[in-house]
Each structure stands twice: as C-alpha cells, then as structure tokens.
Design a protein that fits this description.
Elements (H helix, E strand, L loop, with lengths): L1 E6 L7 H13 L4 E6 L6 H18 L9
C-alpha cells in the first residue's frame, strides 16, 4: 500500500502531476491512499499530512488493510 500526500498549493510538484501518477498507479492495481491538503505548498503538506501519515503507518503495523482511493 502507498500513501500519497499532495498540497493543493504545491508548485514544486503540481497537483496535476500527482493526479497523473495516482491514475497510473491505480491502473496497475497499486493500492493507493491519496490525500490532498487545501492551501498547503510543498513543505506545508508535510506538516499538514503528519496525522494522516501516522495513522496510515500505525494501521499498517497493526495489520489493517488500507482503504484505497482508486
């Protein structure tokens, strides 16, 4: 499983590029959890996504299968 976090104000990695990556991975059957963070830029998305990242990792360590956004 893969978690992808995207800030909607990111100009380093534009949301359109991440959307294309997510679509390609989903098409190959990769289980993706894709979260966006309104107003967050490239660095800001790290802080904004931290609670979701922690929950994602904790669930994986507990053996819980993630929901996919594909």
């Amino acid at each position: 499983p893969t978690l992808i976090a995207q800030g909607t104000a990111d100009t380093t990695v534009p949301e359109t590029a991440t959307n294309a990556l997510v679509s390609a991975l989903c098409a190959k059957g990769t289980p993706i959890t894709y979260d966006t963070y309104a107003g967050a830029d490239h660095r800001g998305s790290v802080a904004a996504s931290l609670p979701d990242v922690q929950a994602f990792v904790a669930a994986r360590l507990a053996g819980v299968t993630p929901a996919t956004t594909c």
